[in-house]
Amino acid sequence: MTDVLIVLAKVVLALIWTLLLALFLTWVERKESAVMQDRIGANRASVFGLRLFGLFQPFADAIKMLFKEDFAPAFSQRALHWLAPMFSFFFVSVTLVAVPFGDAIRLFGRRIPLQVVDLNAALLFVLAMLSLGIYGILVSGWASNSRYALLGSLRGAAQLISYEVALGLSLVGLIMVFPSLRLSEIVRFQGGLLFGFLPKWGIFLQPLGFVAFFLAGMAETKRVPFDMPEGESEIIGFYTEYGGLKFGLFMFTDFLEVILLAALATTLFFGGWQVPWLGAGGFSFPWGGSVKVAPWAVAALQVLAFNLKVFFFCWLQILIRWTYPRFRYDQVMDFGWKFLVPLGTANILVTGLILVLK
Amino acid sequence: MKKSWVIFKEILRGGWITTRHFTVNMVFHTLRLFGIKTRRKGAVTIQYPDEIKPLAPRHKSLHRILRRENGLPQCVACMMCATVCPSECLFIEAGETDDPEVQKYPSRFVVDLNRCCFCGFCVEACPVDAIRMDTGEIRLAADARAGLELPLVKR
Fold it and tell me: Is A5 a member of any domain?
C-alpha cells in the first residue's frame, strides 16, 4: 500500500515538475529570444497590477487555449483526430518516467530512489517511446483528412525515422562504455573519476557521441532548424486542422520534447544528478581538500545540479532555435544520413578500438 | 570539403553572435533591475503607452488651423489645399466675413482622416500659412468612419 502511494506521489511530482517546466519554457522562450534580439518580450500579463516580468503570460496563454473553440473539420476522422494529440503528448511525457532526478534518499527508514520507475532497460525504453511519438504526427495528418496536413505528417515521419537511426547509433558507443542500460546505474557510474581529476561524465568518454546525440535529438524535437513537419511560416504542417487545446497539446509536446532532450543529455552525458567531486560524505577535491556535507544537503545539491543542467540544456536549445534558419528538406536528409549516421558509426568504431586496445 | 568547413565556421559564428547579445543584454537588464544606472539599456524597446518617444520637430500629425488675433481662422478659403490634396480629403465651405480686408473665411473645414495620407502638401500649398500639421496628435482612431472626419473649424 505504502509502495503504491509512494509511486503515485512520485508520478504526480514528476508530472508537476515537467508540466510547470514546460509551461514556463514558453515564457523562457519568448523572453530569451527577446533578449537575444535586443527586445523585451512579453511583460504585460499582470495579476492585480503585479507583472513580474510577464511570468503570468503562460497562464494567460493557457486560459486562452482553454476557451477557444474545440474545432474538428467535418471531413476529419473524429476519433483519430481526437486521439492524435493525446498520442503525441503521452509518449513524450511517459518517457520522463525513466529519468532519475536524484540519488536515493532515506525517509522514515525507507530508501526512496528519486526516480519514478527504475527500469532495467531504461535506455531502450526511452528510444522506443521516442519512436512511438511519431504516431502522434502520422495519425494527426491522416485523421485530418487534409492534403497539406498529410504531406506535413509524412515529411515529419520521414525526418523523425531518419534521425531515429542517428539517435540510436549515437547511443551505441555510450552503451559500450557504460556498464548498464539502467539510467540510475549510468548516472552512478558517472560519479567516478577519469585520470584522477575529471568527472567520468559521458561527454568526456563520448564527445563525438554527444555531438551526434544532441543534433539528432534536436531534430527529434522538430523545432526550428529542423521543423520540416511544421514549418509554421511557409509550408503547412501536420496540425493545420487543429485548434484550441488540441493544438495547444501539440505545442506543449514540443516543449516537453525540449525538456526530455535536456534531461536525457544531462543523464547520459553530463552526469545526471552528479555534482563534480561530491560523494555521499561531501566534497573531496582532486587537489587534496575535502569538505563535509550533511546527507540531506548532498541530496538537495544533487537534485539542484540535475535541475540546473536541465535548465542549461533547455536554454541552449532555445538559443539554437532562435539563431539558425530552417534547413531545406534535402539538407535535413543529407545532414541526418550523410553526417550524423557516419559520425555515429565512426564513434562506435573508435570506441570499440579503444576498448579493445585498453 | 572546404565548403562544409565554411558552413561549420559560420554556424559557430552565428551561435556566438546570439550568445553575445544574450549575455550582454542580460548583464544590463540585471544591473538595471538592481537599480544600478547604466548608460546603455538591455533592450531598444520603447514601451509605448508607458513611455512616449518625443516626436521630431519635422513630424507630420493631425492638422490645425491657425487663428488671427481676433479669433477668426487665418484661412481665407482659397481652396489651394483642397486642390493640391492627392487624397481629396479636405472639404471647405467658404463663408463671408465683415472684414473687407479678409472677405472670406471657412465656415466649414473638415479633414477626412480616413483618406488623409499625411503628405503635408496642404501645408506647403497654403498662401497664408493657415494650416499646419504640428499638433503632435498621432493617436488617431475611432470606432466608425464618421469619427475620423474632423471639423477643424468650429462653427
Answer: no
Cross-chain CB nearest to B22 (options A32, A40, A324): A32
- Asked whether residue A3 is assigned to any structural domain, the reply reads no
Between the alpha carbon of residue A248 and those of residues A86, A245, A307, the distances in Å are 11, 5, 25
Cell 523523425 -> residue = A160
User: What's A49's DSSP letter?
Assistant: T
For residues A26 and A284, give the distance between their C-alpha atoms in angstroms, rounded to a whole number: 39
Query: Per the CB < 8 Å rule, is A35 touching B47?
Result: no
Please say if the pLDDT value at position B155 is more than 80. no
Residue A219 host element (H or E): helix A207-220
Contacts of A295 (CB under 8 A, 6+ apart): A106, A280
CATH number of B64-151: 3.30.70.3270
Write out the three cell numbers for A145.
Answer: 483528412
Interface contact A35-B14, CB threshold 8 A: no
ipTM for the complex shown: 0.86
Distance from C-alpha of B133 to C-alpha of B138, rounded to nearest angstrom: 10
Contact status, residue A176 vs residue A348, Cβ threshold 8 Å: yes
Give CATH 3.30.70.3270 domain extents, chain B.
64-151
Whether B19 contacts chain A with CB within 8 A: yes
Residue A147's Cβ-count burial label (10 Å; 0-12, 13-18, 19+) is exposed
Whether chain A has a CB inside 8 Å of the CB on B42: the answer is: yes
Alpha-carbon distance A61 to A23, whole Å? 10
Q: What is the rounded CA–CA span in Å between residue B123 and residue B20?
A: 48
Domain, as residue range, for A353:
68-357
CB atoms within 10 A of CB A305: 20
More confident residue, B82 or A233: B82
Question: How many interface pairs between A and B have CB atoms less than 8 angstroms apart?
Answer: 40
The span from the CA of A199 to the CA of A309, in Å, is 15
Average pLDDT value for residue range A334-342: 92
What's the total number of domains in chain A? 1
| CB neighbour burial string for A185-209, b if at least 16 within 10 angstroms, e if fewer | bbbbbbbeeeeeeebbbbbbbbebb
pTM exceeding 0.80: yes
DSSP B44: -
Residues of B in contact with A324 (CB under 8 A): 11, 14-15
Asked whether residue A22 is domain-assigned, the answer is no
Q: b/e per residue, A315-342, with b = 16+ CB within 10 A?
A: bbbbbbbbbbebbeeeebbebbeeebbe
pLDDT for the residue numbered A290: 84
- Return the closest-CA partner of residue A124 out of A174, A85, A51: A174
* CA B86 – CA B65 distance, rounded (Å): 19
Residues from chain B contacting residue A323 (CB–CB below 8 Å): 14-15, 17-18
Q: How many CB atoms lie within 10 A of CB B22?
A: 22
Verify whether the Cβ–Cβ distance A323 to B15 is below 8 Å: yes
